[in-house]
Amino acid sequence: MLSCLLAALAACAPPAAAKLDLKGTDMSETQLGGDFSLTDHLGKPRKLSDFSGKVVALFFGYTHCPDVCPTTMLEYAAVMKKLGADADKVQVLFVTVDPERDTSTVLAGYVPHFDARFVGLTGSTAQIEPVKAAYKVVAQKVGDTNGAYTVDHSAGSYLFDKSGKLRVYEAYGTPADSLTHDIRQLLR
Length: 188
Description:
Elements: H1 2-12, E1 25-26, E2 37-40, E3 45-47, E4 55-61, H2 68-83, E5 90-96, H3 104-108, H4 111-114, E6 119-122, H5 125-134, E7 139-143, E8 149-153, E9 157-160, E10 166-170, H6 176-187
Parallel strand pairs: 4-5, 5-6
Antiparallel strand pairs: 1-10, 2-3, 2-6, 4-9, 7-8, 9-10
């Protein structure tokens, strides 16, 4: 009788995430993040969950960034080329940490420059702050407050599987080959 009860309970439990051969850090067992709603670079409200069914790469940055952000975006653009036809099963999301300057219009001139499929996301500071907090992203203005400032910020990115589950943290500087490897793991 007990074995039947245990078997029934096991059948009701959600399936465990498949073990992955990753180059990045496996985040499958963390409770970090969650769904959010911001405005895309075309002015349309978007939620993370809108991209269910695709592998999602989530990166936090800003358009005036002199080095980290364009480097990361170029790496993801290279990933999309390496993926070939599978690139259409991947969505790269760029969430601004500088909503004062990064309006939808500014993002529209920046994000698709790297790949037309990439989506830039912005909102008010009140909308961005809880998203940053949920993903443990740190960002702080440095320098002049009259618009000539930079933003020191967390530089890694997150990969979600097709069901929307956070699976991988990729450190800044991860080469395109390693990113491609991990994304292919999630596309299986």
